[in-house]
Design brief:
By secondary structure, this protein is mainly beta. The chain has no helices and 11 strands. A hairpin with a 4-residue loop joins β5 and β6.
Length: 114
């Protein structure tokens, strides 16, 4: 099973980025897919998740600025009004069931300059 994340980069504060993650190589579909992030010296934290029936969950910092979407085996994270504190490596994940261990993608770096 592979989760391939892309779309990170360097952007100025107030700018936007769109992350993508494509799942492949599994004989099953993921019930939950989503994004986590990890900033230097900090723990990995939830950004947003989306289920196969398109139910979404957002961290408080993401509400109103980030939008997660899903098309089949791909998910996207539209990030608007980015802030320097959004700088982190963003990881996508997938869970076959809500209680399953996650599969992780390789991460994509997002850097927001002030």
């Amino acid at each position: 099973v592979q989760l391939q994340a892309s779309g990170g980069g360097l952007v100025q504060a107030g700018g936007s980025l769109r992350l993508s993650c494509a799942a492949s190589g599994s004989s099953f579909s993921f019930y939950i897919m989503g994004w986590y992030r990890q900033a230097p010296g900090k723990q990995r934290e939830l950004v947003a998740t989306i289920t196969s029936d398109r139910s979404t969950n957002y961290a408080d910092f993401a509400k109103g600025r980030f939008t997660i979407s899903r098309v089949n085996t791909k998910i996207y994270l539209q990030m608007n009004n980015l802030k320097p504190e959004d700088t982190a490596v963003y990881y996508c994940l997938g869970r076959q069931f809500s209680y399953s261990s996650p599969y992780w993608g390789q991460g994509t770096q997002v850097t927001v300059s002030s």
